[in-house]
Amino acid sequence: MYGIIHVLAQALIPAAVGKAIDAGIIAGDQRALLLWGGAVVTLGVIQAAAGILRDRAALTTRLGAAYRTAQHITRQAARLGAALPKRVAKGEIVNAGVADIGRLGEALAETARCSGAVVAIAVVAAILLDTSWQLGLLVLLGVPLMVGAVSLLIRPLHRRQQRLREQQAELTGRAVDIVSGLRVLRGVGGEEVFAHRYRADSQRVRAAGVAVARVEALFEAAKVLLPGLLTTAVVWLGAHYVATGRMGAGQLVAFYGYAVYLADPLRRLTAAAGRLTQGHVAARRITAFLALRPEFATGAADPVGCGGLGSLARPVLREGPASLVRPVGYEGPGSLARPVPYEGHAPFADPAAYEGHAPFARPVPYESPAPLADPASGLTVAPGRFTAVACASPADAAVLAARLGRYTGSAATLGDTPLGDLPPDEVRRRILVADNDDHLFAGPLREELRGRGDDTELERAIDAACARDIVEALPDGLDDLVAESGRNFSGGQRQRLRLVRALMADPEVLILVEPTSAVDAHTEARIARGVSALRTGRTTLVFTTSPVVLDRADHVVYVDAAKAVAQGSHGELLTDVRYRAVVAREEAA
């Protein structure tokens, strides 16, 4: 609305100037001169005020659209959760959250100026038709022809911008991967290989950018040339009419003013076409991201081959060694009501014995602990126990953790209830999966680790994760700031800090994936004792091939080819040549 008022006031100024010349100056009427001069001043004030309000509204629209779109992108990223990196490249999210939202906001803001330009052209054409039908017809025919000529460039521009946008997303994703894995690349000597790939991708993006620039150069030239030709034609025809006596001097001034004025809305109209094209490309990418759905619905259907929901009440029994006659992790139906007695090391009954640190408060057991089971693999995690799983392949650990944490569709159950039948929030509250891909966020270390707990609990978790030396080395201790992604810490330090955060969450079931892979054996042993003591009474499942952690566990399960093939204590499983080979490989490493 403000844009329309602004251009209407601006469009009427040449007419008021022409009337002031003809009716005031040439006719010698001082009153008419003052009247039309006052009209010019009034129109100028209205134009200025409406222009300010229009720009304010356009800025509000641009920023509002950008920030609201950013909120939707953030919510969608959180909703997709663990499925996000599988479905979308990192560079795609970065571009959508930075470049695309800006282009979308600019496109929406341009609609105010575009609508004003359309109204301005229509008003000027009506005035010219009223004064001279030839001039009015020239404008009415010239503007569509100009817009049609410009539109011929929009389609190829749209295609090339789309191609450039996709290649930019791929290049950004590669850059993110290189930066996040720079230490690993240096360790394996892969810097040159990835640098060569990045240079090649960068050159492809440059070529795509040059292709876009060629069309944009023609587009920008057309934006200046075509309105200029139309303006020249209007001025020439108006001057011809004055020379032949068909117009007065004031009308000539007015027509010249219209000709000059038309250049601005015509440029705005062609510029809006380019902005709207960019906004359309960005909107398509954003809506494609927002249209993604999680890998599984809230109420998951029975997976094919599981035999119906009733089959999910118990794990599938496998034929094989004697150790597999019963479901992995418990001794029979009666064992579900209580943890299975540990057949090996004495339980860590006295938490105060943990290497001189402050004693751990014994957690109160949950009123109704339930076993966590994955029928597809035959793995069952008994409630209230420290269970370790040694996988022959690291990929099996990731797959099993995703199933048990309901980060992918599966037939996993908690007690007699399929995880797919539980609300996602309930699953996240009761089961926490922590692996080495988890991020440390920037901010005070205390706030990053503490969560909803208190400082006393935080101190205990720090001791359990053997992270006391990390905190004491910081200038401000727990009040020190964490850099982006925890880059001010080493890999082993980040791993222990992530473990502290996971322990502070205190879930009913804590699933840890290789929580000690980046620390030395002495630290590993202290972490195993500390976590075992702190999680007394809680269900803890650790995927690891470390003999130090496996020796501390109440129960150990060996998984090969995504199937549980043996179980028992660490000492008992060492008689299995397959298990011994995996553990020996870890010891040799």
From TrEMBL:
<protein>
    <submittedName>
        <fullName>Multidrug ABC transporter permease</fullName>
    </submittedName>
</protein>
<feature type="transmembrane region" description="Helical">
    <location>
        <begin position="111"/>
        <end position="129"/>
    </location>
</feature>
<dbReference type="Pfam" id="PF00664">
    <property type="entry name" value="ABC_membrane"/>
</dbReference>
<dbReference type="InterPro" id="IPR003439">
    <property type="entry name" value="ABC_transporter-like_ATP-bd"/>
</dbReference>
<feature type="transmembrane region" description="Helical">
    <location>
        <begin position="135"/>
        <end position="154"/>
    </location>
</feature>
<feature type="transmembrane region" description="Helical">
    <location>
        <begin position="34"/>
        <end position="53"/>
    </location>
</feature>
<keyword id="KW-0472">Membrane</keyword>
<feature type="domain" description="ABC transmembrane type-1">
    <location>
        <begin position="1"/>
        <end position="278"/>
    </location>
</feature>
<dbReference type="InterPro" id="IPR017871">
    <property type="entry name" value="ABC_transporter-like_CS"/>
</dbReference>
<feature type="transmembrane region" description="Helical">
    <location>
        <begin position="224"/>
        <end position="243"/>
    </location>
</feature>
<keyword id="KW-1133">Transmembrane helix</keyword>
<feature type="domain" description="ABC transporter">
    <location>
        <begin position="358"/>
        <end position="586"/>
    </location>
</feature>
<keyword id="KW-0812">Transmembrane</keyword>
<dbReference type="InterPro" id="IPR036640">
    <property type="entry name" value="ABC1_TM_sf"/>
</dbReference>
<dbReference type="InterPro" id="IPR027417">
    <property type="entry name" value="P-loop_NTPase"/>
</dbReference>
<dbReference type="InterPro" id="IPR039421">
    <property type="entry name" value="Type_1_exporter"/>
</dbReference>
<dbReference type="InterPro" id="IPR011527">
    <property type="entry name" value="ABC1_TM_dom"/>
</dbReference>
<dbReference type="Pfam" id="PF00005">
    <property type="entry name" value="ABC_tran"/>
</dbReference>
